[in-house]
Amino acid sequence: MISFGNFGRVSTLTNRQILLRRRPQGLLASGDTELVAVPAPELADGEALVRTTYVGIDAAVRTWLDDQPGYLPPVGLGEVIRAAGIGQVVQSRCPAYAVGDIVTTLTGFQEYTTVRDDIFTTPVDGPPDQVDQRAVMSIYGPTGATAYFGMTGIGRPQPGETVVVSAAAGATGSVAGQIARIAGARVVGIAGGARKCRAVVEDFGFDACIDYRGEDLPAALKQHCPRGVDVYFDNVGGPILNAVLGRLAPKARVVLCGVISSYLTGDHPGPSNYVNLLSKTALMQGFNALDEWGRFDEAFADLRRWHDEGLLVHREHIFDGIESCVEALNGLFTGVNIGKTLVKLAEAQPLSELG
Amino acid sequence: MISFGNFGRVSTLTNRQILLRRRPQGLLASGDTELVAVPAPELADGEALVRTTYVGIDAAVRTWLDDQPGYLPPVGLGEVIRAAGIGQVVQSRCPAYAVGDIVTTLTGFQEYTTVRDDIFTTPVDGPPDQVDQRAVMSIYGPTGATAYFGMTGIGRPQPGETVVVSAAAGATGSVAGQIARIAGARVVGIAGGARKCRAVVEDFGFDACIDYRGEDLPAALKQHCPRGVDVYFDNVGGPILNAVLGRLAPKARVVLCGVISSYLTGDHPGPSNYVNLLSKTALMQGFNALDEWGRFDEAFADLRRWHDEGLLVHREHIFDGIESCVEALNGLFTGVNIGKTLVKLAEAQPLSELG
């Protein structure tokens, strides 16, 4: 159902938004959210209006819906659901952004967003209708930066080492594993189901992939990592993390990137094999790519070179229209996506068509 | 009961040893070990005979009695129980060691040990009857090096930061906490019982100490660490580790030095609060001071300076006679010791009294 908000000033643009109405238990259910249509806001000085082209669907979005402290505050009841996305500047009263610019920003689950000149909003070079927006969302943005800084900064794979990546078919895992391969490591993915495992090997070029649903994970890890695991890039936590901790090589590095196995339940079983961090003199470290904000250009330069050389590929799972945002978010947890999940809301326009 | 072994060549020296007869379940019980008396071995070229003065009793000794792989192999049934200790060279056919030298080595639970010129055997400077052997065992040896490299290499406390140390009255914890204080941090110990907590504050100079037996640990951590825990030096694992992980400050460093809470049972409950490593972008790292062997001199130079300046104190809990070794080892787990546990077997002799 679409309801219209009551705004003081009326714009000619209608902005459809998905608001949080109730904190979800597990997957988002009917009644947790509401799709509303409101006039797009009038701009104040220093603001620009961005029309969302793609909403990025990350597991982090789900964490922001719980009433838990984190590196960003929880989304409040009645607020637009927060998400990182990409869009095009359609009006501007901000010198940092020209009409037509493609920018990455916290679009949220909505068609129009007001932005300011802040660190969350970054223009993308190039003619607006020629920017490869999917590549930006998969590689030249927070997802690529997360894979890059986690793998190169903490994992530090060396030639000949064995690297394991969980959620290997996902947006971050697929890029992280490719970075490790470029560094000369042998890379073993972990993913759920034969379809994903095939994509991990055939599309993303991993050396092998373990189907944690169909295989005995400790046995498969022993088979694929006979000398132990030198680097583990963990997106999932839970029993998969524990199994890999049981297989660490001496001086191993465990990169904690996510705990998707527990985002729905809030339940975090402790990995009893953490004691191997001691016996193997290994480290386990959490990180947030936003801490490396000042070095994003460095990351993107490497990622772009690898992409241009054909060493780094990306895939997207595209949903259509704002009505799909909730289904797309739930899909992260039911395991439908290969690569980055995006919801397409609009096409970018060539400059000639923008007023 | 003392039995005599059957050796081909007979020495004039009798060597009493404690052998492992059965793998212990939990604390060592009667029948797990046997005290035997055998002739001390004749020396081959390149060997020296060391008379044990003090056996060092570490939690690691207990781990070597289980049939588990580790950085050293398990003690075999029928073998002398392995332990690091200190002693005096009484015969030498090795150019590296002169009669009279005080050396640290893997003495084991026995009165005499044959040593070679290897990395496990290190001479201590000074006239033999004037060497402060207790200081060597507490500070200028593997215990001090463990505290030093764990705290300075991984913990890296900064002035004004809050550092928590568990088993704070123990050999390693007491030194680690003092090193953090010297670095300018506020140091909170965790220990079991009022007697130990008093020693942690009054003898070792910590700013505070939490009695985990008598206090609610999460509440006490909140009270004593209002801005969170920047560095945690963990000797115990288990629920105490989990409680401190629940209180981490951003960018915290968790030093994994031991898991004494589970050495007896082999049971390692996983710390569910490990997810804070992610939300706080913190790290948890295991280490072994032996990996830093080449830098021990550097550690000892710092430790000696601090000791000489009165900034670093040490305490020992002394048992007497080889018959006490098993009781002393069990005492680590029943919580009797403050500072380093040693078993005294003999006095060092001045050079004039050695043949």
Structural account:
- The structure is a homodimer of 355-residue chains.
- The first copy, chain A, has 355 residues and is of the alpha/beta class.
- Chain A has two domains: 3-132 and 315-353, Quinone Oxidoreductase, Chain A, domain 1 (Alpha-Beta Complex), CATH 3.90.180.10; 142-291 and 300-306, NAD(P)-binding Rossmann-like Domain (Rossmann fold), CATH 3.40.50.
- Helices cover 26% and strands 25% of the residues of chain A.
- The first copy, chain A, has eleven helices and 16 strands.
- Chain A has helices at 59-63, 133-138, 142-155, 171-182, 194-202, 217-224, 238-245, 260-263, 276-279, 296-308, 325-334, and strands at 3-4, 14-20, 33-39, 48-57, 85-92, 102-105, 112-115, 122-124, 162-166, 186-191, 208-211, 229-234, 248-256, 283-286, 316-320, 340-344.
- In chain A, the strands form three sheets. In chain A, strands 4, 5, 6, 7, 8, 15 and 16 form a seven-stranded mixed sheet that branches. The first copy, chain A, has a six-stranded parallel sheet with strand order 11-10-9-12-13-14, sandwiched between helices.
- The longest helix of chain A is centred in the middle third of the chain and has 14 residues, at 142-155.
- The first copy, chain A, is globular.
- Chain A starts with a strand and ends in an 11-residue tail after the last strand.
- The A-B interface holds A 70-71, 237, 242, 256-259, 262, 268-288, 291 and B 70-71, 237, 242, 256-259, 262, 268-288, 291.
- Strand 14 (283-286) of chain A pairs antiparallel with strand 14 of chain B.
